[in-house]
Structure formats: C-alpha cells, structure tokens
Design brief:
There is one protein chain. By secondary structure, this protein is mostly helical. It folds into 2 domains: 31 residues; 33 residues, no CATH class. The chain is built from 4 helices and no strands. The longest helix has 14 residues. The radius of gyration is 19 Å and the shape is elongated.
Length: 79
C-alpha cells in the first residue's frame, strides 16, 4: 500500500478531522484513509451522465423500459 503524508492543513480542518475521528472511535489517520477511499471510488457526475446517455442510446423506443432503467442504475452504482 502507498503512504501519503498531508501537510499544512488549516487548523480548523485539522480540528474537524480530529473531532470527527474521535466521534467515530478511530484515529485521524484512519478517518482520512476512509474518506479518501470513499471519494476516490465515487463516480463523478460526468461518468454518471455518460452511463445514462449510453443506456438511453440502447433504448429501442421513445420511452425507457424497466430493464434499461435498472441496467443503467446498476452501471451507475458499479454493480
């Protein structure tokens, strides 16, 4: 695993991280680790829109079928 060091956080941000970690019963490093993983795995808006456009382009009729909607949702969620 990679190690990343974060320096020069504003004091209010560092305090927020410390307090949030304390509330969760974890270390500040673990809190930042969890937040970074969550953010990195979150699909950005453009990826979601691209998946929706792709699903719409596969739709044979003027409306969406239940199947195409469910498939698009699965793609967006990464399932």
């Amino acid at each position: 695993m990679e190690t990343i060091e974060v320096r020069d956080l504003p004091e209010d941000v560092a305090e927020f991280v410390r307090l949030r970690a304390e509330l969760m019963g974890i270390s500040p490093a673990e809190y930042l680790r969890q937040q970074t993983i969550t953010e990195a795995r979150r699909k950005d808006r453009s990826a979601v829109l691209a998946a929706a456009r792709e699903a719409l382009s596969r739709s044979p009729g003027p409306g969406l079928s239940t199947e195409s909607i469910l498939q698009a949702l699965d793609e967006i969620r990464g399932d």
